[in-house]
Amino acid sequence: MTAAAATRYVSLLGLGFGDCGKGLFTDHLCGAWQAHTVVRFNGGAQAGHNVVLADGRHHTFSQFGAGSFHAGVATVLASPVVVHPTALRVEEEALRRVGVTDAFLRLLIDARCRVTTPFHQAAGRLREWARGAAAHGSCGVSVSETVRQALAAPDDALLYGDLLYPPRALAKLEASRVALRREFADATPLHAEAAQELALLDDASFARRWLDAAMPCLRQSPPASADAIGERLARPGTVLFEGAQGVLLDEWRGFHPHTTWSSISTRAVEAVLRDVGITASVQHLGVLRSYLTRHGPGPLPTHDSELDARLAEPHNADEGWQGVFRRGHPDAVLLRYALEAVGPLDGLVASPLDAIERAGLRWCTGYRTADGSGLRSLPLSDVPDLDHQHALTQRLSAAQPIYEPDTIATPQEWVARAEALSGLPVCFGAFGPTRDTVRARERI
Q1: Domains and CATH numbers, the chain
Q2: Is the model's pLDDT at 347 over the cut of 90?
Q3: At a CB cut-off of 8 Å and minimum separation 6, what does 188 contact?
Q4: In whole angstroms, what is the distance from residue 276 CA to residue 342 CA?
Q5: pTM of the predicted protein model
Q6: Between these two residues, 296 and 363, which has the higher pLDDT value?
Q7: Rg for the chain (alpha carbons), in Å?
Q8: Which one of 26, 63, 67, 385 has the fewest CB atoms closer than 10 angstroms to its CB?
Q9: Per residue, what are the HEC states of 146-207?
Q10: Preceding amide of 257 cis, omega within 30
């Protein structure tokens, strides 16, 4: 099918390591452009997109689209998304507490979505604990474990549509449990929590209890066909594609092994539309923070402990699975790389621009490498190559930033630098955490 001429498609793609404001701009654009649907097209329940309303209500969106505070806006979980049904129930209850009472009724889940189970979570956590100081930076949700096992044994992968048929679902759950337990046959628990996860992999009765817990999600949001999703996305109005994570964490373009098993690119957005038979152009917007952030291990060349102390982060803590939340100065090298890796963009959106005048941010123009030479750009591999990505990780880990001599004085100066480097307009800038602080380019 082709979309109605009155249908506008817009994507929001993170250009950093995540936590760049995709929730804020999804919430804003749903109102400003009267969106009727938000599509989640990558990642899974490890996303954490914060939306704060002017009246103080707040929600961290994990699987539901960040436009859910707007009445009538639907969420579509497209088939690349890894669905966590019991976590959806928990999130729906949290949304009810802040006034969103019909989130499930506005949710369409593609029947082909892979499903994360407690067995995947147990295995993913056990692997991360075993890595010790070499931890990858897992969120503990195990999207990667779900995808890894599905690729290794496609016929046994549990799909959302399978949940309609309990005998099939239970057979796949048991196959998954047995296969994962076999991988940990020689594992020695490092501590009590690890012992609990191993015990779960030993519990053949747990699958039935988990399936019973997932049923309320299934009853309220039954599996949707590609045709039903295509009909929704072809409606006149605006459809927003809300990316999860950022391209610097992309499974093939991020800095291995500190990545997510998820694709963040213009190609990933367009593939979802093609999959449901829609041929239409998409307006792709890259999402930037005024300063870099990284939650958990992995290279961040411009990390500055003074920024950690200076820039408050009310919704990102140092505790939990990912570990320490770090801040870094704007980095022209990583921005050039992100722009090349994500695909052709039509513009940028940026937040929080109000932090610039108080943060003392400096513009990183390049790196000094271990051999003393300079580096202004990172090579992008022509084909997916994890060895290439791992080599980039090693180079970044040893890189020392080279800064412009003066700090960035105003939001306007930051915008001018971002536009000059990217060749793209900064279409919107946010000067606070709520949608009413977002300004169009001419008002920045």
Answers
A1: 7-109+225-443 (3.40.440.10), 114-221 (1.10.300)
A2: yes
A3: none
A4: 22
A5: 0.93
A6: 363
A7: 22
A8: 385
A9: HHHHHHHCHHHCCEHHHHHCHHHHHHHHHHHHHHHHHHCCCCCCCCHHHHHHHHHHHCCCHH
A10: yes
